[in-house]
């Protein structure tokens, strides 16, 4: 009986370890082969690495702030999976393997440079919105035990600066990874997330913060600052 325990624990950890190993193998292959996809692919790889550098400390720290209301229903899970595939997995597979080369398109260098340029304000706003949300940030639709309504910093005039940042990166990705599957698919994936998730997130915030959220919503814009303020 005691002999089977280590074997079983290895078997149960395999589903978690295998995707991680596959991801690392793809990453190594992508770094080795980026030239075949053009220099935009290298920019894309660096930006994704920086996104992780920005996000991982917040993921680790916020684990200590308990989730008390989660609205991560099947719709939300489909949206999040779609984003993960279109933003991370498919571009990485394309740059690493060139399997989707039948769906390549060509763009002039200046268009790739525009994509690279957009990633600069993206990274700044992505960093600032995580910093300003602090312990309140969640990747999904969640309210935490110690949840405050943030109305300062990049949240002072816009309610969704993190999504504004992700819109920038969404528009930049097809300019960097010249492929309909690995590059352009992010556009419908994030459009679906924006249109379906944003009203649900606002309803969740309203049910948690009531009049304070109504007042905040009245003086801010969803994606861009309100004109005339
Ligand atoms: N939509 C925001 C935040 C994205 S992160 C943006 O684009 O910047 C998603 C989580 O952030 C939500 O689950 C919610 O719990 C939290 N959140 C959103 N707006 C918030 C705010 N103004 N103050 C505190 N938490 C907020």
Walk me through what this model shows.
By secondary structure, this protein is mostly helical. It has one domain (4-219): Four Helix Bundle (Hemerythrin (Met), subunit A) (Up-down Bundle). Helix content is 68%, strand content 3%. It is built from eight helices and two strands, in the order H-H-E-H-H-E-H-H-H-H. It has helices at 4-33, 39-62, 74-97, 109-133, 161-176, 180-184, 186-209, 211-218; strands at residues 67-70, 142-144. A two-stranded antiparallel sheet has the order 1-2. Helix 5 runs antiparallel to helix 7 (186-209). The longest helix is centred in the N-terminal third of the chain and has 30 residues, at 4-33. The structure holds S-adenosyl-L-homocysteine.
Topology, pairings included?
Blueprint: H1 4-33, H2 39-62, E1 67-70, H3 74-97, H4 109-133, E2 142-144, H5 161-176, H6 180-184, H7 186-209, H8 211-218
Antiparallel strand pairs: 1-2
The structure holds S-adenosyl-L-homocysteine (SAH).
Largest sheet: 2 strands, antiparallel
Strand order of the largest sheet: 1-2
N-end to C-end Cα span: 71 Å
Strand share of the residues?
Answer: under 5%
Quickly count the helices: 8
Percent of residues in helical segments? 55-70%
Morphology = globular
Average pLDDT rating: 94
CATH top level class name? Mainly Alpha
């Amino acid at each position: 009986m005691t002999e089977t325990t280590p074997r079983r624990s290895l078997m149960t950890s395999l589903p978690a370890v295998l995707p991680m190993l596959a991801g690392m193998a793809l990453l190594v292959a992508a770094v080795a082969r980026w030239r075949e996809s053009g220099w935009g692919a290298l920019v894309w790889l660096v930006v994704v690495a920086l996104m992780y550098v920005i996000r991982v400390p917040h993921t680790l720290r916020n684990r200590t702030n308990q989730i008390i209301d989660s609205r991560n229903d099947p719709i939300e899970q489909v949206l999040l999976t779609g984003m993960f595939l279109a933003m991370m997995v498919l571009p990485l597979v394309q740059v690493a393997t060139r399997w989707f080369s039948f769906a390549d398109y060509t763009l002039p260098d200046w268009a790739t440079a525009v994509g690279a340029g957009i990633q600069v304000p993206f990274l700044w706003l992505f960093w600032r919105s995580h910093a300003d949300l602090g312990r309140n940030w969640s990747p999904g639709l969640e309210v935490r035990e110690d949840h405050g309504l943030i109305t300062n910093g990049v949240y002072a005039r816009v309610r969704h600066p993190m999504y504004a940042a992700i819109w920038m990166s969404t528009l930049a990705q097809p300019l960097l990874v010249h492929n309909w599957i690995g590059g352009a698919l992010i556009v419908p994936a994030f459009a679906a997330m924006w249109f379906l998730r944003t009203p649900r997130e606002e309803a969740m915030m309203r049910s948690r913060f009531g009049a304070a959220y109504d007042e905040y919503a009245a003086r801010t814009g969803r994606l861009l600052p309100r004109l005339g303020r």
